[in-house]
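Researcher: Go.
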Amino acid sequence: MIELTRGQLVCLASQPCTALVRFDDRAPHRIWLEMMEDYAPNRLRVVDGELFGKELAGARRLAIEVTVFQEGAPQFLFDLAGLKEAVAAQMP
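Model: Structure:
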């Protein structure tokens, strides 16, 4: 899920939208996003969450470009150091 604390993501309920993602130094690629069941304008779900999760688990850095209403397509950068260990600690 992608969630903004301020702003609105641009995506229609009737049709999925895309975001550009880049893991580490790999080539960027598009992922499909769709609105959540409550149609909140600040949250979108990754359509193929399982594939995205696998890519995320093996990465050190993530960059996401997603269209934000009246803001264009800003790039959000995430340092994923320690993510794999944190997720493993949550598993039974």
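Model: Strands lie at 2-3, 17-23, 29-35, 43-46, 61-65, 75-79.
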